[in-house]
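Quick review question:
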């Protein structure tokens, strides 16, 4: 017997509309055979899928998930005999994984229901999807297939047409705060909510970053303080730090991107929800110094450099490219 708590829809923060829909489906005995929780990475698709699954599997219909029946306790412990969890291996879901699920589902069930939870379903290659199609076309009795995906539209049309899509909604700041508090986060700032674009998984990562605030201070220090100053001392410090610290590069690139988006928003006069809200006054002033095209161009350049780094652009060359792209914009 495991001490793991059974996932429960009642404990999920936010997603009220979707949860109401899930409860209705459960009341109807879950009429479909396959559902796909779809939304960006870090939105909480897996949490919802697991909670939905636990309630469907529980054999105590009146108070599902009861947390006590064999189905609940084995599901929570990860040892449920009729549950197959498929996750990408080396970023791929292979046909072998689908075949092995089909084999497991060909024998009788232990507690009456079979469930397959597939995470990141968009990672199935074509042969895996074709193989899954067989299960979707002729599902065994009492079988439920739950997919989670951040790329629903990239699944084959024949799969999409046989799967009910369950899209997740964005989270409000209060909901995000509640999720972060639940995860043990003590601080929760407007900055985290804005910078994570309302995605809880991303906010959680940021919350745990030891370098986030110091890197952000470094990045906002490139904003010139006054037009009389030649050169920006903060700029020099930023490039020096980046040259020396390869591991900080992705976070700093994200933060630079966030600052540039703030500058573009301020330039366009839509600065009610800036990522770096504590620097609003300076951002407004600096935003006016360049054109809209300058700010958009810079955002694209940072994007290009970030992608080049993923394709193994040399670290120092990436720092130099960043400095060449942004330096002139802030040098008054
Ligand atoms: Zn139960």
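Suggested answer, residue by residue:
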């Amino acid at each position: 017997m495991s001490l793991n708590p059974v996932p429960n829809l009642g404990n999920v923060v936010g997603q009220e509309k979707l949860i109401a829909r899930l409860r209705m489906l459960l009341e109807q005995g879950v009429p479909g055979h396959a559902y796909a929780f779809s939304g960006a990475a870090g939105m909480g698709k897996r949490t919802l899928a697991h909670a939905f699954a636990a309630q469907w599997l529980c054999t105590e219909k009146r108070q599902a998930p009861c947390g006590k029946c064999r189905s609940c306790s084995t599901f929570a412990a990860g040892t449920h005999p009729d549950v197959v969890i498929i996750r990408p291996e080396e970023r791929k879901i292979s046909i072998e994984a689908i075949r092995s699920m089909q084999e497991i589902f060909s024998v009788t069930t232990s507690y009456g229901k079979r469930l397959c939870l597939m995470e990141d379903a968009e990672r199935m290659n074509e042969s895996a999807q074709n193989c899954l199609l067989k299960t979707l076309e002729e599902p065994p009795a009492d079988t439920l297939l739950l997919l989670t995906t951040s790329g629903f539209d990239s699944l084959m049309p024949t799969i999409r047409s046989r799967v009910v899509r369950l899209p997740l909604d964005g989270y409000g700041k209060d909901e995000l705060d509640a999720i972060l508090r639940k995860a043990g986060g003590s601080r929760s700032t407007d900055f985290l909510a804005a910078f994570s674009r309302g995605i809880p998984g991303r906010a959680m990562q940021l919350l745990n970053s030891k370098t986030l605030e110091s890197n952000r201070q470094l990045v906002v220090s490139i904003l010139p303080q006054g037009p009389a100053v030649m050169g920006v001392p903060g700029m020099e410090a930023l490039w020096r730090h980046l040259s020396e610290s390869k591991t900080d590069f992705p976070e700093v690139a994200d933060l630079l991107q966030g600052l540039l988006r703030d500058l573009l928003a301020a330039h366009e006069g839509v600065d009610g929800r800036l990522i770096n809200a504590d620097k609003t006054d300076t951002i407004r002033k600096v935003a006016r110094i360049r054109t809209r095209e300058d700010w958009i161009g810079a955002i694209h350049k940072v994007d290009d450099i970030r992608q080049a780094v993923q394709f193994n652009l040399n670290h120092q060359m990436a720092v130099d490219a960043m400095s060449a792209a942004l330096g002139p914009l802030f040098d008054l």
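Why it works: The first strand starts at residue 34 and ends at 38. The chain has two domains: 9-167, 209-330.
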